Amino acid sequence: MPLEWLNKEQVAKLISLDMVQYTFGSTLTRLHGGINAQTGLQSHIDIPAIIGTKGKNHHFHKQLNDYVPPLNNPTLFRRDQNLCLYCGQVFEPKQLSRDHITPVSQGGKDVWENVVTACKRCNNHKADRTPLQSNMKLLAIPFAPNYAEYIYLQGKHIITDQMQFLMNYFPQKSPFRKCFV
Ligand SMILES: [Zn+2]
Fold this sequence. Notes:
- By secondary structure, the protein is of the alpha+beta class.
- The protein contains seven helices and four strands.
- The strands form two sheets. The protein has a two-stranded antiparallel ribbon with strand order 1-2.
- The protein is elongated.
- Bound molecules: zinc ion (ZN).
């Protein structure tokens, strides 16, 4: 199962502590250490794209199935690919906002399924109304990312090997499958 993103120092530490069960994918970088006094050779650790760590958690699969990622704007905007889901244009994150489809004032909840990315102009125009009341059409149906999709949304420089691994855990109809073909 995908768990989290680690930086290269964290991976090097896990390797040196012998906590890595297997590695997968290409080598991202090589970290160099000190020179061995006897051999005169410099030590190094290769940092792989994916590592599997030792240890088991039997309840983990069930936990991940029920997992609802925390809702925050940066991840929401990435879910919707910086697209305003009303006018369909792409914006810089600072020009975007979180729109509640059913407004909070009308009982709408602050959950993944009731929020979309909207440009400030569309959000102001919609105001405290539903899409129907404001005659504004939603361009996509909002959804809660599963655990693997959430990890994907948090990634910064995702390489092919990592994406292929993550995609194994995406739902069949995940829109993120299309982002990477
Ligand atoms: Zn808009």
